[in-house]
Amino acid sequence: MSPALAVQRDLEAFVRRDATGRGRLELLVTGARCAACISKIEKAVRALPGVDGARLNLTTGKLAVELEATAADPDRVVQAVEGLGYRACLFDPTEAAAAQDREGHDLAVALGVAGFGAGNVMMFSVPAWAGLFGQELNGSTLTVMYWLAALVATPCALFAGRLFFRSAWASLRRGKANMDVPISIGVILTLIVSFSETILGGRHAYFDAAVTLLFLLLIGRYLDHRLRANARSAARDLLALQAPVAMRLDGDVETGVPVAEVRVGDRVVIAPGDRVPVDGRIEAGLSELDNALITGETALAPVGVGSILHAGALNLTGRLIMTVTARSEDSTLAGIARLMEAGAQSRSAYVRLADKAAALYVPIVHTAAAVTFLASWALGLGPREALLRAAAVLIVTCPCALGLAVPAVQIAASSRLFRKGVLVKSGAALERLAEVDHVVFDKTGVLTQGRPRLVDAPQRLIAMAAPLARASRHPLARALAAEAGLGLVAQDCVETPGQGVEGLIDGRRARFGCASFVGVSDRGAGETELWFGFDGEVKIRFTFEDQPRADAASTIAALRRLGLGVEILSGDLAGPVARIARAVGLDDAWQAGLTPFDKAAVIDRLKAEGRKVLMVGDGLNDAAALARAHASMAPGAAVDAAQSAADLVFTGEELGVVTQSIIVARTARRRALENFGFSAVYNLVAAPAAMFGLINPFIAALAMSGSSIIVLLNAVRPGVRWRRK
Predict the structure, then answer these.
(1) Mean pLDDT, rounded, for 233-245
(2) What are phi and psi of 540, to 5 degrees?
(3) Is residue 411 within 8 Å of 40, Cβ to Cβ?
(4) pLDDT in tens, 544-556
(5) 3-state DSSP call for residue 588?
(6) Which residues in the chain are classed under CATH 3.40.50.1000?
(7) What is the pLDDT of residue 431?
(8) pLDDT, tens only, 657-711
(9) What span, in angstroms and rounded, lies between the C-alpha atoms of 619 and 607?
(10) Where in the chain is the domain with CATH 2.70.150.10?
C-alpha cells in the first residue's frame, strides 16, 4: 500500500457520513491570519472534485469541508491546504487548544524580545538623530552608534521576526505569496540597507525601524490572538459543562467511559446530581431537570419515559436510564458552542469586500515597490536610496488593518453579545440586524413568560383543588399548586395523560383536569382552563393566563425610541392577544389567529413595502416567518426549528436583549465602516508619501503597525453601555 493511500484511508475513517453517503471532514489549519488567508484556502478546497463546500473559522482554526458521496478524496483536501503554505491535520479540540496556546506563547515571547530590542536600540539611535536638531555627531562616532544599534537590533529582529519569516518561506516555497512575504522582505531589506550604510560610512541606518516594525506588528498580532481567544473561551466554557465521563450500561453493569466514546444506541445512566453527558431519550425513570444552561428556563422540567434529554441539563431528583441519540460532538450543548464559534467569523458582505481588497494587495504593492525603486534610480538617486524607498513602500502599505477591519469587529461584537446571553450565528446576521426598521413579535413565549398563572380564584377553592394539583405534572396544575403553596398531596393518585389526575382527598374521590374528564358536558377542552370537582358535586372552573415578560413594555418603548415599527403576529385568539398588546403598549399593532402561512405572508408584504423586518419567534409556527425575515431572533426555550431558522438566539428571561442586540449591531456596523474608511485614507496617504521619499522605513513601520492597532482598538471600543431595565 502506498503512503498516500494509507493517509487517504486514515482520513476517510474520520469523515462523518450521513445515510446518503455525504460526508463532513474537519481539519485544524494553522498559519491562517487574515481575511485573504480564508479566501485563498476556501477557494482552493472548493475547487477540488467531490467538495461541496468549505468554511474556515479563523477563530478556532477549524476547516469544515462538505464532501459528496462519491469522488471525494479527503487526502487531496489536506494536500491543497498545505500546498498553499499552511499546515493541516485532523481537527482535535484538545490539539487545537494546545496549538493556540503555543501560538500565544510564541507571540508573547517574540513580542517581549522585540520590545526589548526596540527600547534598547534607542540608546544608540537617539544620538544618531541628533543631527535633526543641529547637533550632528562626527562620522566615526556616528558609525560606532550604528554598530552598537546593529548589535542590539539585529538578533532581536531575527528572533522576533522568525514567525513572519517562517510563514513567508513556507508560502514562497510553494509558489505562493501571503501577507508575511512583504513584511519579511521589508524587514530584511531594512537590515541589509542599514548594514550597507554602516559599513560604507553612510548617514542613514534604520536598525531601529526593523525591530520597531516587528514590535508594533507583534502587538497587533497578539491583540488579535487575544480577541480570538476570548471568543474561543466562551464556547469552551460551555463545552466544559458537558460531563467528561458517561456511565454506560452493559446489561446490569455500569462502566464509566469518556464521553467521546459514547455511541448512538448506547444505554447511559444519569444519577441525581449529574449532568446529562449526551443527547438521548429516557428509557426508564422519572426525575426533574434544570435546563437553565440550555434554554435559560429557570423552572424545573419534569421528565419521564420517552422524554428527550439534552447534554448539559442537570438531573435533580431521580435515577434515569436513557438511550443515546447523538454523539458528544453532535449534542445540543456542542451545537450551542458552534453557534458562538460561527459568530466569531463569517462570510459577510463586509468580509467579502475585505477579501477582494486584500487579494489585490500582493501584486499591486510589489509592483509599486518595484516601480518606486526603478523610478527613483532613473531620476538620479543612488541604488541605496532607491532601495530604501522601495522598502518603505513595502512596509507602510501592509494590509493588516484592512484584513482586521471586519473580523475584529465581528469577534468583539459577538463576544460582547454572548456575555449578555445572545448567541450570534453569523457576522452577516449582525449586519442585517443593524439594518432593520420594523420588529415583529410572536406572543406566547416571546412577549409573554410562557408560564401560565391562575386568574382571580378564591383561596378556599384553590385549597380544595391543591392536593390533586400537587400530584400532577401538567403546567396548569403546577401553576395552581404554586399559588396554593406547600401542603398535603391527594392519596391513590392516578394521572391520565392529556386528561387529568384523580385521587382521594380526605377519603373522597375527586378529579382535576379537562372539562370532559371531570364530567362537565358540552364544553370543549381549553388550554387556559382546568376543572375540579368531587364525585357527584358541583364542578369548579379555574382559568389561567400567560403574563407578559417583566420588561416587555419597556422593550417595546425602547424599540420605538430607536425609530423602529413594532407589531404582534400571533396564532392565539383575539382576546388574549389584545390583552397582551394593551399591556405592552401595542393597542392597535397586533394580528391574531394567524397560521404559519399567514405569518410568512405578512413578512413578505412588509418586505414588499420596503421594510427590513426583524422577526422574534419561538414556535414551529414561526419558523417560516423567521426564515423569510431580514433578520430573526429566537429565545433559548424555542423549538429546534425556530432556533435553526433564527440568526440570533437569546437565553434568559429579559426581552431587553432584543433592543440591545440591535444597538450592538448598529455599533458594529459603524465600527466596520470606520475601519474601512480609516484603512482607505491611510493607504491613499501613506503609499504616495513612501513612493516620493517622504517616509523613511522607520516612520513607515510606526505608521503601518499603528494603523493595525488603531483598527483593533476601535473594534473593541465599547460604544454601548448595557442597561438593565
Answers:
(1) 60
(2) -115, 135
(3) no
(4) 877 888 888 999 9
(5) coil
(6) 421-449+548-663
(7) 80
(8) 899 899 988 888 888 788 777 877 877 788 888 788 777 666 766 676 677 677 7
(9) 22
(10) 245-330
Q: Which residues touch 635 (CB under 8 Å, ≥6 apart)?
A: 295, 296, 445, 446, 618, 649, 650, 651
439 touches 255 (CB < 8 A): no
Percent of the chain with pLDDT over 90: 10
CATH 3.40.1110.10 at 453-546, yes or no: yes
Phi/psi for 453 (5° steps) reads -135, 140
Residue for cell digits 440591535? 662
Q: What is the mean pLDDT of residues 171-178?
A: 71
DSSP string, 316-354: -SS-EEEEE-S-GGGSHHHHHHHHHHHHHS---HHHHHH
Q: Hey, what amino acid is at 352?
A: R
Q: What is the pLDDT of residues 494-543, one digit of tens each?
A: 877 557 789 999 889 999 988 888 888 755 444 467 889 998 888 898 88
Q: What's the farthest any 2 CA atoms get from each other in the chain?
A: 117
Tell me, what DSSP letter sits at residue 272?
T
List strands edge to edge, sheet with 448-454: 448-454, 540-548, 529-534, 508-513, 500-505, 491-496
Ramachandran region, residue 494 (left: φ > 0; alpha: ψ -120 to 50; beta: rest): beta
Q: Classify residue 240 by burial, with Cβ atoms within 10 Å: 0-12, 13-18, 19+.
A: exposed
The pLDDT assigned to 564 comes to 92
Q: Which residues are catalytic?
A: 442
Give Cα separations from 230 to 227, 317, 686 (angstroms): 5, 36, 32
What's 3-91's CATH class? alpha beta
> β-strand 631-635 against 23-30: which pairing, if any?
unpaired
CA distances from 519 to 229, 380, 476, 495 (A): 63, 107, 19, 16
pLDDT tens-digit readout, 437-478: 999 998 877 888 777 778 878 888 999 999 998 888 676 788
User: Do the beta carbons of residue 478 and residue 470 sit within 8 Å?
Assistant: no
How many CB atoms are closer than 10 A to CB 191?
Answer: 24
Positions of CATH 3.40.1110.10 in the chain: 453-546
Q: Which distant-in-sequence residues (6+ apart) come within 8 Å of 113 by Cβ?
A: 156, 159, 160
Q: How far apart are CA 200 and CA 186, in angstroms?
A: 21
Measured in degrees and rounded to the nearest 5, phi and psi for residue 55 equal: -140, 120
Contact 710, 674 (CB under 8 A): no
Task: Please tell me the CATH code under which domain 421-449+548-663 is placed.
Answer: 3.40.50.1000
99, HSE (Cβ side, Cα atoms, 13 Å):
19
**Of residues 224 and 440, more confidently modeled:** 440
| Residue 471 exposure: Cα atoms within 13 Å on the Cβ side | 23
Beta carbons within 10 angstroms of residue 685's beta carbon: 14
Lookup result for grid cell 548617514: 203
343 pLDDT more than 50: no
Per CATH, the number for 245-330 is 2.70.150.10
Buried b vs exposed e over 68-107: b needs ≥16 C-beta within 10 Å? Answer: eeeebbbbbbbebbbebbbbbeebebeebeebbeebeeeb
3-state SS class at 302: strand
Alpha helix stretches (DSSP H) within 585-719: 596-608, 623-628, 640-645, 656-691, 697-716
Cell triple for 571: 396564532
Q: Which of 392, 391, 386, 383 is nearest to 373 (CA)?
A: 386
Segment 592-632, tens digit of pLDDT: 877 777 888 898 899 889 999 999 987 656 767 887 788 88
Q: Give bridge partners of residue 503 from the DSSP assignment.
A: 510
Closest-CA residue to 439 (of 613, 691, 226): 613
CA–centroid distance for 516 within its chain: 50
